[in-house]
Amino acid sequence: MAIRVLLVDDQPLLRTGFRMILEAEQDIAVVGEAGDGLQALDQVRALQPDVVLMDIRMPRMDGVEATRQITGPERNGPAKVLVLTTFDLDEYVVEALKAGASGFLLKDAPANELVQAIRVVAAGEAMLAPSITRRLLDKYATHLPSGEEPVPDTLHTLTDREVEVLKLVARGLSNAEIAADLFVSETTVKTHVGHVLTKLGLRDRVQAAVYAYESGLVRPGAQ
User: Residues in domain HTH luxR-type (predicted)?
Assistant: First the structure.
């Protein structure tokens, strides 16, 4: 079945461009468009998309609040949110990820990256590109903990290996890359990631990465 996508952006020209790119793919169907967050909520309820391609700054309701309502505990449907951003709006991206977005993508990303991001998010994975993530968090390092704050109690529930895995997830590594780094199987990595999410009460890898930075476990710019 085709991946059902809802386009949310207050610029009609951008929505048209995204529609042309996505409708050229046999496994993707654009089921609707919205020009602001409130329209997006209505469209999500009516159309039940699999993925919402969400702009951040829009009139009436911004993308952060719309994301929170779409992916929150009262959510009505399976929709996942992929946030669109430009670097001058990056301060909003972490808030969108914390609100429940499954990842983010630059508005000027190549067409093939947009298509791949839609497929990744629809499959239940997080779209967390390492290079973009590091640039984003480095830029806003002043808003994150200094590393001198007390370690959250929840972090102590993790084993040493789970802490290692969390650090690598925060760097944006895939399961395969983590497995190669730690010399274990991908199945083992998936198990560790699952334990990390469960113990910390997190929804996915994106929230795990945000947690790692906010807790001071990983510092912006660290390799």
Answer: 151-216
